[in-house]
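Holo prediction — magnesium ion.
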Amino acid sequence: MGPILLAFALAVLAWMLVVGDLVRRYRPLWHWYLIGYPLTACRVVSTWRKVAVLNDLAVSRRPSRGLLGDLVVKGDPLRPVAPRFSFPRAVRSGLTVTVRLHAGQTPATYMKAADAFAHAWRVHAVRVTSPERGLVLLTAMATDPLARPGLATAPTELLSALIGALESGGAWVMNLRLVPHWLITGATRSGKSTLLARLITQLASQPVALVGIDCKGGMELGLFAGRLSALATCRREAVTVLSALVVDMQDRMQTCRTVGVRSVWELPDKLRPIPVVVIVDEIAELYLSDGTRESRAEAEQCSTLLLRLAQLGAALGLHLVVSGQRVGSDLGPGVTALRAQLGGRICHRVNDPGTAEMTLGDLNKDAVAVAQSITAEERGVAVCTSPDGGWSRARSHLTPTGEAVAITKKYAAVTPVLPALHGACVVVEGESKWSTKERHSRSR
Ligand SMILES: Nc1ncnc2c1ncn2[C@@H]1O[C@H](COP(=O)(O)OP(=O)(O)OP(=O)(O)O)[C@@H](O)[C@H]1O
Ligand SMILES: [Mg+2]
């Protein structure tokens, strides 16, 4: 009887393991609610005190020594008290724990301990937020939600683009009305150009002029030339295009002053100029100089023009989206000033800690460590800032090149003509060069 029972128990166990594995693979959500969550919740409860003590989150209520007259009296060391926490609540492929802070504690202590929680609870990551004073919310993610991100419906607002998915499961939206200028950094092959392509395809259908500056000979942005109102493929062309945009900016200022408003968005519809989004792929190409006087002067000119657009363009419907592998002061004196104007930040995988620090450090210290932990396999994963001053890990949606080109071709006919860019170089269909003036006369 004994061996039969044992064999039966082993068979049941093997069957449960196989079924468990199948459920985990094909129904990860069921697996989480049925097996993952109860196990992780037990780990949270059983390890809570130990993790709190080891990470200085627990406090002793009374000192272990006191004074009796002139005598120092030592008592038994008091057991530190761990902060009070709510029972873990299951959420989609993760759980949340609300913690009441001890007096004198700040969420920063918990942010430092986030990795320790993730290891103790054996989850992908733990994020720390503070929904109200005195409370922190620990959100544990069982698996990386960005491994297979879903895609929400695109926003309909002008100058808004659905870029991808946030780690929280929400939509990653880039809204240029809320944050007018953006800086995108990342090592080579980390996903910068893919993100720019996504942005262009999202803005293509909107009444927005797109201007490309791609000094890698137009290899990346040249693909979308049909929907670009101007494309500069070398620094000389960039100077021409940027100078024209600065002149256009001054015209816009004049219009606003005449009407008596403070931004183009307050102008009546018929007077409002079309918004322009200037997309720069690889900023370093604009700043590098080969040492000759001419090249240095050109780089300085580019730097000044970009800075002027960034400083004054936001209220005038001129937006900058700048990408680059590095944005350090080693590129030139103007680059730090430009960076300060680019309020939106996106940092992909970086090769050196300096780049993550340069992109996110001045806004959010905690985000820097998360950006540094992005691996080479996680292409398109980035840390992005949000308009409310927070940040999130996110992944851009991979738009295949063919699809992106097809979308820009579809909307090529609605490409706005920017009168200010008469004479600036554009590449149409990647082949012939036309000025916007010629293109204008062609479209008529
Ligand atoms: N969101 C994403 N999801 C999946 N794969 C991606 C994503 N973004 C980029 N990739 C992959 O990474 C590769 C490199 O991306 P991309 O060319 O955008 O990098 P880059 O940062 O512009 O590099 P470089 O600095 O060399 O121009 C792409 O060919 C694509 O296959
Ligand atoms: Mg690129």
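READOUT: The chain has two domains: 39-59+80-143, 160-443.
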